[in-house]
Each structure stands twice: as C-alpha cells, then as structure tokens.
Amino acid sequence: MARGWLDAEDLRQIARLLPDLSCVRSLALALNPQWISMKLPHHSTIPAAAVCFQDCEHTLSAAGYALHEAYAEKLWYEQRRVPPEPMSAIFFGKFFADDCALRLYAAGEQLADAVAAMMETDEPSLARYKKRFTSRQARIGAYLAVERPSDPTTTALTALQQADGWQRTRNYRDFWVHEQPPRVEGLGISMRRGTRWTRTESGWAMGLGSGDAPDLTVDELLLFVRDGLLAFSRAFAAVLDQYIQRLASHGVTVTTQDRGDDRVTLSVHLL
Questions:
Q1: Distance CA 235, CA 231 (A)
Q2: 157 with 108: CB under 8 angstroms?
Q3: Against a cut of 0.85, is the pTM above it?
C-alpha cells in the first residue's frame, strides 16, 4: 500500500483532512449494555442503543480509514512515484472513495437503529413511514421531524440530511448500488447505459469509437465524500452526546479521565 512509501509529513497532511474520532471512539467503546441495563427496566431498548453506537463507530472508523487510503494512494501515484501513474492514482482514489461512501451509508443505518433504541421507539410507530422510505435512516428522520421536531437529536440529524456533502455522498452510493455506477474521468473509455442512437434532423445517428462524457472527476468525488464524512462525524458526536445525557437521567454517568490518553470510564450509580 502507498502508506508505507509516503513520508511522515505526507501522512500528517492527509490526517488533517479527516475528522479526529478519538473522543467519540472512546465514548462509544465505554458503553457497556450490561452495566446500563442494571438501571433500566428489562424491556427497555436503551441499553441496546449502546451496541448500535459501537457498531456505528466501527463502521465510521473504517470509512475514515478508506478515505485516508484514497488520499494516500492518489498522492503516491500522482506525485511521489517515479514515473507517475495518473490512471493508477485515479483508480485507487476512486476505489477507496467508493468504499468510504458505501460504509457511510451503513453507518447511517446503524446510527438510525441507535436513535430508535435510545428513544425507545417501537416499530408500529415507524410503520407509517415504511411505505414512503426504504432506508432505516430515512424513516427515523421522517418520524423525528413529525413526532419530535424540537429534540436536539432531530436537529443534529436534520443538519446531516441537509449537508451538501452528505446528500451527494448518498446520491453517489444510490447510483453506485441501484443504477449505473457514476463514471469517473481518466479511467479510459466509458459508456452510459441505454440506446446508442441519437435523434437528428435527418433521422437517427450513432457515433463509433468514442465513449460518453464522464460524470465527475476523482477530485470532485473525494471532495464531497470527505464533506459527507465530516458531516456524519458531527451528527454522530451530537447524537452520542444526547445518549450520554439520557443515560445520566437514569443514573448512569459517563466520565472522562483527564490523563491525556482519551480514556473513558463508565460509572453506574445503583443507589
């Protein structure tokens, strides 16, 4: 991998492009559903939200790693390798950006499950939105907008849905999965799906030996996927903070140890 061939300053520059997830990672991993269950009724779904948050953190971290590799591979093949390999830079940049986009969608589904469990929202309450929306995150978002419009969690998720980078990343993923993957410039001749004939004044015509215009460049792809990752990271941190507050209302407090190593401990007060 290109990571081993870049110097320390290269890696630091790439790291500065990505969100620092150390704090939310420590918080999420400190959430023990068994300890939390000690202060809640047996039927409560609030402890299950802890597991959903941990799943979301793992997926988000993997998405961040994928984007890091996208930048690293592109930098290596484009600027550090002698001679440069522009097509390899585009191929690997797209490969890892695609991976990031796909993982971000999965993280969105896991965050939606966390919110539903945190708020103890039952499935019948969500059923009315099932016909309109296929994804879990869309149904949860619609439910919150109607049922809990002033909740801070709703505010955080609404901001995410309105973020341009997140919208473009979601749209890119949807095309990637459900239609034709968007064509990136620099990877050779590419064709759009559909008929090759075009209507002219004299009838029908078809060009031979050339492809169709690409949908975007790898730099454009990296830019909006990065913006989507940053937007999701902010939303995840905000929702996790609301969960911590909800736990506190049930006598479960999460405290940080100021030792400079981002360690977090979970304190459960039983009295």
A1: 6
A2: no
A3: yes
